[in-house]
Amino acid sequence: xxxxxxxxxxxxxxxxxxxxxxxxxxxxxxxxxxxxxxxxxxxxxxxxxxxxxxxxxxxxxxxxxxxxxxxxxxxxxxxxxxxxxxxxxxxxxxxxxxxxxxxxxxxxxxxxxxxxxxxxxxxxxxxxxxxxxxxxxxxxxxxxxxxxxxxxxxxxxxxxxxxxxxxxxxxxxxxxxxxxxxxxxxxxxxxxxxxxxxxxxxxxxxxxxxxxxxxxxxxxxxxxxxxxxxxxxxxxxxxxxxxxxxxxxxxxxxxxxxxxxxxxxxxxxxxxxxxxxxxxxxxxxxxxxxxxxxxxxxxxxxxxxxxxxxxxxxxxxxxxxxxxxxxxxxxxxxxxxxxxxxxxxxxxxxxxxxxxxxxxxxxxxxxxxxxx
Length: 372
Known about the structure:
Residues 6-11, 14-30, 43-65, 83-89 and 304-312 have low confidence and may be disordered. Helix 1 (2-26) packs antiparallel against helix 5 (153-159) and helix 8 crosses helix 10. By secondary structure, this protein is α+β, with helices and mostly antiparallel strands. The protein has helices at 2-26, 68-79, 83-86, 111-124, 153-159, 215-228, 233-241, 268-282, 314-319, 356-370, and strands at 35-37, 94-99, 102-107, 129-133, 138-141, 144-146, 171-182, 185-199, 206-210, 252-253, 261-264, 285-290, 295-300, 328-337, 340-347.
């Protein structure tokens, strides 16, 4: 009897402990985000052109010292710092900006310092990096499942990993982060794409289709990034939630029939930002960008239906296999025009395009701008 009671008590204890997270989510004290990447990868590494080895004391030559004794004194001074200085130092100069449903961070540090930290952040969130381009300031994760969306997650957690593979949320997300230098500071934008497992018309099987981007999820990830950078948890949530919403809404002017262009009733800075986020949300492959010239350099693989061919099939979409066809190079050009701006599509030589493909690119961008 005693053994039976002890076993029952142990089981109840496990259920109560595992249920704490679910309870916190129910009362709103914890975000329901728990990602598990669908792709296993090696630990994240810093790209060669953003090498941070010089910040590690093991690889840094002593500066301003001529003798070993002076070097030893400097090392002792470094070791004498308080724990508050060395463990999770409070971030300074991190603010949240907002334009409609779009939020982004402005960090008062150079991109060379911010970019590697964002790489570490995604690894901590349970993602592997699918691609990164430090020159363009872009990184994209692999598809991952939010395990927190699985029903009765606390029961599944209590039962352990033996039956963990039986449960599936039927949703996958991948995130894209864009980093820009603006006036000596670094702007950080986060967007995501979603895929949802949906039954076919005859109900005989399931297929994966693209879902709608959730601005709230982007904002939640921005808050988590702020915490990772050293901001207090409650302060990060308050800053993201209370970011002042710009009352001025962007409007898209209808262009003459046959013209592949978007007219925006807003100045260049806002138009550049809005186009960049639309490019991220649409999933265009970005090779580079030149803000001074107003150009985003993209690659686009067209089809007869006008839909962007991203991967060949379900396996390719989920795990990132490449297309056999080669995507063509284009520029998406943003130019100020009076008090507004105009967006056009150029070829790789800078010539304005009014082809069917250019019009389809404009249509995709326009759709994602309206979604904001």
